[in-house]
Amino acid sequence: MYSENSGVHLLGRTQRFLLEISTILYFFARNSAIPLVQQYIHFLVAKKYNFTAEENDRLLDYLRKEDKYIDETAASLTASSSSFRRPEALVANNGSDPELGSGGTGDDDESTRAHLEERLRLSHRISEESSLIVLYLNVAELLPSAVVVVFLGCYSDATGRRRFMMWLPCVGSAVYALGFLLPLYVCPDDGAIVDSVVAKTVFVVASVFSGLSGNVPGFLSGNASYISDTDSPRRRSLRLAIVEMSIGLTFGIASLANGHWVTATGHFDQPLWFVFACSLVPFILIFFFLAEPAGEVSAQLGHDPTASSFRNFGAIRHVFGCKTAAQRKLWSIFFAFEIFVFVQQGQERTFVLFLQNHPLHWLPTQIGLFLFILYVLSGLGAWPGVPLLQRLMTDLSIAAIALLSKLIGSLLLAVAQGSFVVYLSAVVQVFHLIPYAIGRSLASQQMGEDEQGSVYAMLHSVQAILSFVGPVVHNSIFAATMSSMSGTVFLVSGPLLIIPLILLGYTRYLEMGEGGYGAVDGYQAKPFSPSSLTPLSETSGFAQRSPDFHEE
Description:
The protein has 22 helices and 4 strands. The chain has 552 residues and is an all-alpha fold.
């Protein structure tokens, strides 16, 4: 839909609902699939070595009671645990069942210590093997998506089509879930799955297909481009903040629910079928019911989308030049965004290891509850936090507050010795997801309508690479420092957010020099900076429409 007065394509209530419910379902599927696959692979490897969850629970209880063993064994114990799961990393004792929770003296004490060391060595072996498999699968999924999303974004700009960048990742997510479901029904013995050539091939093919479909970077790029085409610049940050709210809430709920679901059923087939359903439904909604944005851009580009897509690679090079102030602003925003992604993605994958290690030693249920609180609060920080903050300050100021929120929360985690400080960090980080939305919005305001998809594709392509590099770097720092101070990883990565803060200050300096948000190629898009007297409805998704707006 289009408003002639404003020159902006606007979404009707029905179309907006379809877009938002599709986004929620897709990210519920992805946020459920990531920890489920980690649990699933670890479960298969543990099954191969006949390890049991019950024995591991008894070992955890023993280590909490016998504090003298904790410092010596924390590294091995942490490595043997995986995200969002019941621990399943101890070897069966071949009929013996010593009372690990009771202390002993003399020969009994030495025997217990030797038994512990043997189990910890075996649990470390399981952790290494499962981590290596997960690493290979992550590479097979993330690297293709980092390359493909650039081509998809350029083709999207050339044709003016945005929907395919959203429904294609939904198909990839559904195939991904089926790929991990199939071996459960083909292989009769769970312990034989991980060594089966057929199962390994299916796992890799499903991961590669998910990557080639665009995966999360592709969906985010298509979603952001669709929002840019169908909403006014003043509401763009808000709409993208709603997307981040969806991601935060679904991640929190999935973190809380999946562990309990697997524990209650003892199987992975039901949660994986749920992931499949949550992937298939948004595909149907987007493919059959969501309207394509108006085609003025594609009409201007001509009737040869292939040739136009090649021209768009030249447009990317031009947009990311350094000759004009607007181009330098775009580079500043780009680096600020990607540094935040590196820190956020790395810390996200280190939370569980940190909380399981000394001095906290949290159980999986406690970890799930913390992640639920953290991401629900951050979801609320995105909505209604963004529209409320927009009444008082500009998007640049909101981004700065969000980065400070993440920085202070990281420092609190670094010095946390008890549960109170950990939960306090969750409250302080209430705005930590906002930079995703604000960064995309600020970048989009530096370019014309025919370049939205290409720049979003570049943002999310680099984001896909950093989503892999960030966890590797953070986990390496954690492994090297956890015996001395497990929070060192947050003490190192948190201050890195000072760099994005400096870059935002530089962006503000350039903005003051040119008198606004000038964009390349002469495109001008003044930011919406509401005052305290501006009605909240003017900054929300329910803003009053122009007389030319037609509801679907």
